[in-house]
Amino acid sequence: MTESHPQVYPLMFEPIYKEKVWGGRTLEKLGRSLPGDAGTPIGESWELADLAQTSVSGGGGGSERSVIANGPLAGRTFADVIAMAKSAVLGDLPLTDDGGFPILLKFLDARENLSVQVHPSPDYAEKHADAFLKSEAWYVLDADPGAVIYKGVQPGVTPEQFRLAIEQDRVEPLMITVPVKPGDCHYLPSGTCHALGEGVLVAEVQTPSDTTFRVYDWGRTGRELHVDQAIQCITFGPAEVSRYESNTKVQGAFAQITRLVACEYFRIDRFEVESSQRQDLSYTQPAVWMVLNGSGSISCDGTPDVSFGQGQTLYLPPGMRDGKLTVQADTTWLEVTFPQADSSRIA
């Protein structure tokens, strides 16, 4: 490995944990050692982040950049490694306008309801330079009996009626309530009014923005609401997602593959692989794996083997050489790929 042209391999990252009033400790089910004591509410684990600036409305401020946790590049930020070896790390995948990676990956643990919120609509973002689109998908990992999410506004509700409902503390009846269970996947285009319900743990794939406008917070105090901005952004009515969500199954060379979401920003497929499988890995464009269960390892020419297990996130760069996958136990992962690049599949 040279300083200017490092040999690339599957990258893993240090989690960036976020304490949230609505969070819990359910991430421990993924084998995580969480910060704080048993009462510290951890709501988010940012698994792969490359944000130059987070939004004040999203509770952030400042940059959030993932740090590599494994191999010879450990301790460097993902952004640093992209700058050092862009083609080997990204292939033809374009960065965002401000030079960041084009998705943000998280785990979210909702011990309580998240705020009812909306992310900027395309029209709002075009008119406000500090607001950025945030389209996202939630894959349900764990859910209490009777758990729900809120996804869109009931048909026929007007902006005036919605604003009055906020003032009168009766927003929930105007939201579309969707029961959820493990294995469900939901796409939420930017502009969709939504909330993650209590008792739900999800993997989240989203465009790299943290611009969030809270419209209702279930009686909690001390957190700012952004009602005027939210009303301008909400796409009233049900979320228009039929052309994005899927549940199409395909039998690959070594895996059962289910296409879950395909939008203009990312694709999500679930891979289910039986134990004792060995497979060559060859990507011409990047892919990200969020491992849901099981275990395995990936070997590459010239670098140490990378072992992975439940709850871990791997970035597979197209420049890795002679990649080989070994699956030790029945394993399931979400694979995130990018329509912006002509991604080569391994199945």
Summary keywords:
single chain, 347 residues, mainly beta, Jelly Rolls, 2 domains, 7-stranded antiparallel β-sheet, 6-stranded antiparallel β-sheet, 5 helices, 24 strands, 38% strand, disordered C terminus
Overall helicity: under 10%
Give the overall average pLDDT. Answer: 92
Give the total of domains: 2
- Placed side by side, the strands forming the largest sheet appear as 1-22-19-24-17-16-15
- In DSSP terms, counting alpha (H) and pi (I) runs of 4 or more, how many helices? 5
| SSE arrangement, N to C | EEEEEHHEEHEEHEEEEEHEEEEEEEEEE
Under CATH at level 1, the class of the largest domain stands as Mainly Beta
Q: State the end-to-end distance.
A: 30 Å
Description:
Helix content is 10%, strand content 38%. It is mainly β and 347 residues long. The chain has 2 domains: 11-233, Jelly Rolls (Sandwich); 245-337, Jelly Rolls (Sandwich). It is globular, with a radius of gyration of 20 Å.
Which helices and strands, and how do they pair?
Elements: E1 11-12, E2 16-24, E3 42-48, E4 50-51, E5 64-65, H1 78-84, H2 86-90, E6 104-110, E7 116-118, H3 122-127, E8 136-143, E9 148-153, H4 159-167, E10 175-179, E11 185-188, E12 194-196, E13 200-206, E14 213-216, H5 227-233, E15 245-251, E16 256-262, E17 267-273, E18 277-281, E19 287-293, E20 295-300, E21 303-309, E22 313-316, E23 323-327, E24 331-337
Antiparallel strand pairs: 1-22, 2-3, 3-6, 4-5, 6-13, 7-14, 8-11, 8-13, 9-10, 9-12, 15-16, 16-17, 17-24, 18-23, 19-22, 19-24, 20-21, 20-23
